[in-house]
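Can you give me the bound-state structure? Components:
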Amino acid sequence: MLKTYRRMMVVAGSYKPQLQKSFLLSVIASILQGIIFALFFPLLSALMSQPIDAQPAWILLGLFGLLVVVEGAIRWEELDFSWTTSLDVAHETRLRLGEKLRQIPLQDLNQRRSGDLNVVMSGNVSELVMWIGGLVTLLIRTVVVPLTTVLFTLLIDWRLAVALLIFFPLAVPIYRQMRSRAQASFRKASDANVDAASRVVEYAQGLPVLRANNQVGERSQRLRAALEGQRIAQQQGQRLVSVPVATMATLVEIGILVIIGLGVLFILQGTLSTPALFALIVIAMRFTEPVSQLIGLTSIFDLMEVSLKRIEAVLAIPALPAPPSPTALTRFDIHFDQVYFRYDNQTQWALQDVSFQAPARSLTALVGPSGSGKTTISRLISRYADIQAGTICIGDVNIRDVDPAHLMHSISVVFQDVYLFDDTILNNIRMAKPDATDTEVESVARAANCHDFIARLPQGYNTRIGDIGGALSGGERQRLSIARAMLKNAPIVLLDEPTSALDTESEVAVQDAINQLVVDKTVIVIAHRLSTIAAADLILVLEEGKVIERGSHRELLASQGRYATMWEIQQRAQDWRVAA
Amino acid sequence: MTQSAFTKPPTGVWSIMAPVKGRIAGAIALAAFSAIASLGSLLMIPQIAVELLSESPDPAVIWRWLGLAAVLVAIAFTSRLASSAISHLAAFKLEVILRTAMAEHLAQVPLGYVVTHGSGAIKKWMQDDVQSLHAFVADTTPLIGQVYTIPTLSLVIVLITDWRMAIATFALLPLGMALIQLTMRDYAEVRESTDRANEEINGVIIEFVQGMQVVRTFDDGSSSFARFQKSLNAFTQSLRDWNAKTKLPGSLATLLFEPLPLLIPIIAVGTWLMAQGSLTFPQLLVFLLLAPRLCGAFKPILTLSHFVNQSKAGAMRIGSVLAEPALPQPTHPKSPQDASVTLSHVTFLYGDLANGDRTALQDVSLTIPAGTVTALVGASGAGKTTLARLIPRFWDVTEGAIKVGDVDVRQMTSETLMSWVSFVFQDTFLLHDTIKDNIKLGRPNATDQEVEAAARAAQAHEFILALPNGYDTIAGERGSRLSGGQRQRITIARAILQDNPIVVLDEATAFADPENAALIQDAIAALTRHKTLIVIAHRLPSVINADQIAVLDRGRLVELGDHDKLVAFGGVYSRLWKRYQEAQNWELRGSASTAPTEK
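Here's the bound-state model for the whole set.
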């Protein structure tokens, strides 16, 4: 309970005082409500006196009305949180999450599927905040109102007070206890849910293939079995969940009957007044309502709890450690010195004892089968994650001592996949240098072979990417990303198979653009077509995270090793024909 | 039978419940019954008061009333539990029915529909949207029974007890109802702008997350973060506007629908009437006990409205999926005569939003004799993928006809067509199942020897044997434990086993690494031997030996012939060929610029 409270306060961020205020108001309003209920004791005894005691009844009713108004006013203030402040909390939480995403190592970012992060940032935040106000105050009411009333009942009849105490306020913790135990076994059942969900995903992804193989609809036994399994698990889960609910409701309902029975006994014994009993019954009836509401909302509680956990998990990712006194980069040669690197949650080294030097303005090529560590090297230069051992330096400066923003500023990356933002073409290029003039943007667009096709678009540079969507070919998108990199004009350029996803028509234009981009830069390139990198100053041949050969094209061919074999196979593959 | 569960596609939350409507009606009835019993048990308390206040209370009578109350409570409780159990079971059953109906329906709509919407959307329909119905079907339907029964019955009871008190009780009700209506009213324009803002914020969040890698490398994050912030501000503002409109009635409703305010007029009028001697205490007790129950009946509606709205949205989407027309099936199905493919005057328009109403193919005529190789060549967007997809009927042609073995593809059943045409995709899809079953997908009754032979031909046998359990190894989700090239070879083995006479091959754009490429090439050669082959070519050299090369340009067939003829012709193809040769010779220049001589 207390832990949940503290966690909520953390999420509330700078709105913590408001949330605390709303909780405090809720406690006060609930105590007032308890007092109002307690007024039933004198009120009913006034009404039941023979003859009826009208004057005190009116006075008590006046007091009753006054307290109801005061309580209403306090609750009004309290509601302000769920109507207004909760939106601000959601807003702030999303900003915090967004800020966090800018700071965490890219490795952590890549490990989470983007869909997951979307859910956290949009869905989970809404779920948490929507209920953070209302639900907690409901919980407070369910506990505080009966407790206050029990205190007053103690003055009237301690035996009934004890009976109330046993059945009502205590029912909540008992219920939570039972529920959490039921949930433990419930979790097992939810595996079936996961299984069904992944079968649905599989079916969705495989539909074209499954249809081609006549394995759809009725014939899709796997899907059907999984759906059926899910249903059985859901039913079991429902049974597990309904037991605590039933217990709780029974406790409350039986409680009232027991109190009536006990009361009647005491009255017949002459140890309790009739009005006191009926006052107590009217009051006790009121307690059942929040309790049953709370039961109905427990699934929402779970939802909130899950959301809270997921938001916390993202916020808890440590940011890349930034240097206390950052050093500026002045030279742009790259040094790897005995670098060891392992991805999170992996046992194998992705890179082992990798050392090389790429002088400023040189061309270094990384070659090797997929999974050999080529992309890892290019990622580590931009501090995708921190290495476990060794050093990576640019100039003489360890990249850990460089401010991350400054490091990024010095590096341009051209990936195989191009990401364009749903904004104008102008802004997509300009994001590399926000203060660039239109003329600057146009001149890089010309250099990257983009200008002509941009000019043909309906609104030219002001065309929104989203409006034309698929109308841009892969090559055109790649050229836009190269124009962006040119505008950035960073001294280090990383090329990760920039043309391998393109068709012949686009490839030449992109190649031209890259030729413009790399002039006078320190270039690290990953290319599967070896002829592309034959002129590199240094070729590193990688296998299983180790550098197994290094040298120029000529040296490597002469040494008759791995590279020479790859070169030969590739020359042969070029002559391949489908209809041989 | 595609919509076994529905006679016509559902259009809302009620019609979508049709397959379980009996159970739902039962759940509602039981909930109503429970409400009646529960109100009945309340009425026992005033009876006890009557007895206790009489001249000489008879304990036996009191215990009898109390016993009756206990029985009624038990009935109320049991029927409520039963109601909830029935509605939950109905909801679970409905989930299975809907998912199965969608799975079956998606098997019959044009594949183009599936491909254009993508697996993400399908997963959302089948999983999340169906899930969103749960709140309505399972949790809300029992409440409906309660919401109608309790006020009606209460009204009758209080009218019988004392009409003057009844007026005091129900005086506040219309006001409260009006406020609830006001809160839940659909402010169409506000909702639309909030929906828009919501969509936009979702889009921006997706972009922000997916583009983070780029965001990090191409700016300091400030410009995209600013875009994120801007949309977030707009979103929050639109929510604030909405809340500003509903806050007053909403808060008032929340406060008024508390038992306490309602008790004030009841106690006031009650005190007055009792002072006059025209109301007894047990009568007052009826009102003190009933009035709060009345408020309680409405409250859950407010709380659940959010979930109900979600359910509505989900139901609409499910309905629209089920309403998508299925691919028409022939009344008198025919079978192809041979493995030739003929396109005559084929015109095709994408009739959906994603692709605009543009013409993808215009008057394309092409004859592909059985056992020959035809390559489709052209820039991206020229229509070669569309053309290839029309053969297995991803969509039906807009005009003209496609014939396989002299029979129009629309005159064949899907089964017949699929047993003639294999489609080898760029995307390699593997089931989370054994390698053997994955290969057998193409022909479920194949023997182990046949599977092995297909795997050998696809150059997959060796690496499969090297796996921990050989052919019985489970392919990781989406085949993740296998490399791209290995997955590709397994899907080729599948097609080899299927042994259909016509193969449509989408040539992989990039081979993972040189060694794999050679193996995949051998696998493809084994697959396509003696077959009618239609290949979507992305790289030119692979098609040099094709019997005919069909060059597409903006949806039209512009050139047709073999390699030598087309190069000599000097048109689109010869230009592509020149480009290709240039691209092959691209060399990044190093600082030393010592170009190697050997090539």
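A couple of observations. Residues 593-599 of chain B have pLDDT under 50 and may be disordered. Residues 13 and 315 of chain B are 6 Å apart (CA to CA).
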